[in-house]
Amino acid sequence: MRLPFTVAVKNFLGFYVLTPFEQNLLKRLSEGLGVDDKEILTYQLSHFTTVRRLTRHLDEPNAHGYTNFYTLRLGKDVSARCQPKRFASNEPQALLASAHVAFDGGEINVKFWLVKGVLFRIEYHSPEKVYYPPSGYRINALLVWPQG
Hints:
By secondary structure, the chain is of the alpha+beta class. It has one domain (5-144). Helix content is 26%, strand content 34%. The protein has four helices and eight strands, in the order αααββββαββββ. A six-stranded antiparallel sheet has the order 1-2-7-6-5-8, with helices on one face. It has a two-stranded antiparallel ribbon with strand order 3-4. Strand 5 and strand 6 form a beta hairpin. The longest helix has 13 residues, at 20-32. It is globular.
């Protein structure tokens, strides 16, 4: 499935915009977090300025889709300065949560990755090579990983 037209146009013009699918995944993630972590996620999402995504399959080994989040100023990544609220993590890169999305004719396994305690990537793996599901999808399971 393709991105909604309005999202594709805003994305092309460089505006920070989330797809309905990304919004639903982040809402489900927020519902699975504790109060403090939910506050951190809300804060971080409100400070991102750019999103980069790949939702079409590339015919390469280990191909997957993704949505990456950045806080940019004048073309430079300033996430370290503009994201003081961070998830507790001792690792440079850590898995925050995973989810399973089902739709007619397929599934998507989703992972939420942190970099230095800041949400950086939503990663999509699908045997059907679909990274943006058609309408009628279901987010069946969410597992939040312990941090530390």
